[in-house]
Amino acid sequence: MAQILAPSTQMQMRITKASSSTSPLTSKMWSSIVLKQSKRVKGSSKYKVLTVKSEHGTINRLEDLLNLDITPFTDKIIAEYIWIGGTGIDVRSKSRTISKPVEHPSELPKWNYDGSSTGQAPGEDSEVILYPQAIFKDPFRGGNNILVMCDSYTPAGEPIPTNKRHRAAEIFSNPKVVSEVPWFGIEQEYTLLQPNVKWPLGWPVGAYPGPQGPYYCAAGADKSFGRDISDAHYKACLYAGINISGTNGEVMPGQWEYQVGPSVGIEAGDHIWMSRYLLERITEQAGVVLTLDPKPIEGDWNGAGCHTNFSTKTMREDGGYEAIKKAILNLSLRHKDHISAYGEGNERRLTGKHETASIDSFSWGVANRGCSIRVGRDTEKSGKGYLEDRRPASNMDPYIVTSLLAETTLLWAPTLEAEALAAQKLALNV
């Protein structure tokens, strides 16, 4: 642990007095605070914190350093190594200096971390190894600095139990899956909470706003809460190279959604996890709490899902509707397997209400948001396209969900008897 040495004087905080020629203090100026001695202590060091004046007041020197472009002065870059922690939903990260800019994960060294501090290794054998897998531009540091999506292994090279990327990569590298070029479009919903009270942003503390209806895709200070966070996240994702395709305010006030895709194979999971990391960092800076809980508020309020749109090359070509129906048939036969892997607490969300199907039964329909699997009107009309799996919770692991969809629809084969019974039950003529 690094030790910080500082003079032992008693301190007080004071806002610098603006001159009469300057503008009134803005919120940015209020963040510019100067520490000054209030009393001299015998034997203590003397020091002075310098401030810089501009025509608008005091410049925050810490902010200047955070925004400092180091590119003209060094070839070295900062790489933020990011991985998934022991809960399977938390993201962790730490930084290291790399001697020069890189373009591919293979140019980066492996690294390690203390797995006993993340719930991923015992204290007596705590070293976990990070393997760099995907690179993104760093919107926080800028320049040539990067964010690195990693997965975790034992020193012997075995994936640790929480490393779901490894198995997903195996499925997506299967020749049969590769030939079908699986596309994913993932709709990530999330809820913003007020700090300390953990109550949705924009809601009166300990009370409720008006009922759902006016908030979805709405504008206005009484209907839209957290737009600045959503917009900041949107731009950060575009800067980083994440394939974000849109965003919108959701049905429950204080809840938002963004969409990532279409992405091919393992890329979908990498991009969702990195987008979640960016969202965690942005809400951290805004002093707002992010939750991916699938039902953050009990009662007559929409939950938060991670609807996953999926298609294969065959589904997207003429006559692909038959392949879509066959995929739905397979999904119906493995409903319990998918539900068990689609996120924690999902039973609180999948109740058959608030645009969900019951967790206990499988259903499908055209343009029906109350079904397990929804097929769009355009897909039905054109006879090709994609399906939407509406079952995944907002806290699902995208590596698990995307690879399971590919496995069930492309690699797994039911018995003819089971297939016939399921087709009859679902009224599917396959």
UniProtKB/TrEMBL annotation:
<keyword id="KW-0436">Ligase</keyword>
<dbReference type="InterPro" id="IPR008147">
    <property type="entry name" value="Gln_synt_N"/>
</dbReference>
<comment type="subunit">
    <text>Homooctamer.</text>
</comment>
<dbReference type="GO" id="GO:0005524">
    <property type="term" value="F:ATP binding"/>
</dbReference>
<dbReference type="InterPro" id="IPR014746">
    <property type="entry name" value="Gln_synth/guanido_kin_cat_dom"/>
</dbReference>
<keyword id="KW-0809">Transit peptide</keyword>
<dbReference type="InterPro" id="IPR036651">
    <property type="entry name" value="Gln_synt_N_sf"/>
</dbReference>
<dbReference type="InterPro" id="IPR027302">
    <property type="entry name" value="Gln_synth_N_conserv_site"/>
</dbReference>
<dbReference type="GO" id="GO:0009507">
    <property type="term" value="C:chloroplast"/>
</dbReference>
<dbReference type="InterPro" id="IPR027303">
    <property type="entry name" value="Gln_synth_gly_rich_site"/>
</dbReference>
<keyword id="KW-0934">Plastid</keyword>
<keyword id="KW-0150">Chloroplast</keyword>
<feature type="domain" description="GS beta-grasp">
    <location>
        <begin position="77"/>
        <end position="157"/>
    </location>
</feature>
<dbReference type="Pfam" id="PF00120">
    <property type="entry name" value="Gln-synt_C"/>
</dbReference>
<feature type="domain" description="GS catalytic">
    <location>
        <begin position="161"/>
        <end position="430"/>
    </location>
</feature>
<dbReference type="GO" id="GO:0004356">
    <property type="term" value="F:glutamine synthetase activity"/>
</dbReference>
<dbReference type="InterPro" id="IPR008146">
    <property type="entry name" value="Gln_synth_cat_dom"/>
</dbReference>
<keyword id="KW-0067">ATP-binding</keyword>
<protein>
    <recommendedName>
        <fullName>Glutamine synthetase</fullName>
        <ecNumber>6.3.1.2</ecNumber>
    </recommendedName>
</protein>
<keyword id="KW-0547">Nucleotide-binding</keyword>
<dbReference type="GO" id="GO:0006542">
    <property type="term" value="P:glutamine biosynthetic process"/>
</dbReference>
<comment type="similarity">
    <text>Belongs to the glutamine synthetase family.</text>
</comment>
<dbReference type="InterPro" id="IPR050292">
    <property type="entry name" value="Glutamine_Synthetase"/>
</dbReference>
<dbReference type="Pfam" id="PF03951">
    <property type="entry name" value="Gln-synt_N"/>
</dbReference>
